[in-house]
Design brief:
By secondary structure, this protein is mainly α. The chain is built from three helices and no strands.
Length: about 100
């Protein structure tokens, strides 16, 4: 299937673009080259090729999620500027 100059004019109109005659000829040639390349790719035998979700393999770079003991409450509150026996004290930020 070849792209004609009229096809390029129509596509340009849909995209609200204006091209002069030289640009129309250039885009017509380039689109035809792209379609020829796609046709060449269609000739490849891909019967035993598994589909990919990504062109390269991804792997998780994060560490494993291991259960470890938590910091003791007393140690956590030790450096707090203000605290109660169980919680951090913070300034009130919501007014009623």
């Amino acid at each position: 299937m070849a792209v004609t100059k009229q096809d390029v004019e129509y596509i340009a109109k849909l995209a609200r673009l204006k091209f002069n005659d030289e640009e129309l000829e250039n885009f017509t040639h380039e689109l035809n080259e792209i379609l020829n390349y796609v046709e060449k790719l269609n000739e490849l035998n891909t019967e035993k090729v598994e589909p990919l979700s990504h062109p390269i393999e991804n792997f998780n770079v994060f560490r494993e999620d291991k259960l470890e003991p938590s910091i003791d409450r007393e140690d956590a509150l030790k450096n707090a500027p203000s605290s109660t026996e169980e919680f951090f004290k913070v300034p009130k930020v919501i007014n009623k």
